[in-house]
Design brief:
Rossmann fold, 10 helices, about 240 residues, about 15% strand, alpha/beta
């Protein structure tokens, strides 16, 4: 059965990120240090080839993708945007420390929404709806290799919702310019809405050499074997 591979890559930090600002919908260019770091990653490691390219609407995600894949003409997916911080956009924690509700928002893990912004549950629901649409479109087109460059929170929300092994969003956190390749098989996706993490990104030039963070891949394979085993293979 055909499998679909989506290469999830975290964008490089923008200038606002480097200043400690809450940058959701605010447009801020990539920081110079991030551009240099990404160029170094690209020279030292391998990024997978793909036929389809997707990105968050933020310039920092599109620019990250274009540095890695200069030939790409990415399809922008609004649902892959960063959380909307509303009235707290482009401000630092120090600037917001006296704002009503800010400390409660921090302590509550974003379960409430900033003024005119987006709560964590609404954000996750929006991201998951967008990712399911992306998968559906890939299957309809028959394209088996795709790249999605998006924000850390979007990436970790997707992996926490659908990834094997089951893990909390924080456990899926990765460095800018890095990420995961996930494999989706239509039967398993339609039946259980899960996908397998098969490797971390970027890849080493020596495909047999594993980087230290490949422990997640080993856990994914073990979890898949436990959950579905031979019976799952027979049903595909």
């Amino acid at each position: 059965m055909k499998s679909y591979y989506i290469h999830l890559i975290r964008n490089m930090p923008c200038e606002g990120n480097l200043q400690g600002r809450y940058i959701g919908r605010t447009e801020s260019p990539l920081g110079t240090s991030g551009i240099v770091q990404l160029a170094k990653l690209k020279a030292e490691y391998e990024y997978p080839k793909a036929a389809q390219f997707f990105a968050s609407p933020s310039t920092r995600c599109v620019d990250t993708l274009k540095i890695l894949y200069p030939e790409a003409d990415p399809e922008v997916i609004f649902e892959m945007a960063e959380c909307d911080f509303g009235d707290w956009e482009n401000k630092t924690a120090a600037e917001l420390k006296n704002e009503p509700g800010f400390l409660q928002w921090l302590e509550g893990g974003g379960m409430t929404a900033p003024p005119n912004g987006e709560s964590s549950p609404v954000f996750v629901q929006r991201v998951c709806a967008g990712f399911e649409m992306l998968v559906q479109n890939l299957m309809a087109r028959g394209e088996t290799q795709a790249v999605l460059v998006t924000h850390a929170g979007v990436l970790t929300s997707i992996l926490a919702a659908y990834g094997i092994p089951r893990a909390k969003p924080y456990d899926w956190m990765c460095e800018p310019g890095c990420g995961y390749t996930v494999r989706i098989t239509p039967g398993l996706w339609m039946r259980s809405m899960v996908m397998e993490a098969v490797c971390t990104l970027p890849l080493t030039h020596d495909e047999e050499q594993e980087r230290p963070d490949h422990f997640l891949v080993d856990l994914a394979r073990e979890a898949a074997d436990r959950a579905y085993g031979e019976h799952g293979e027979e049903q595909r």
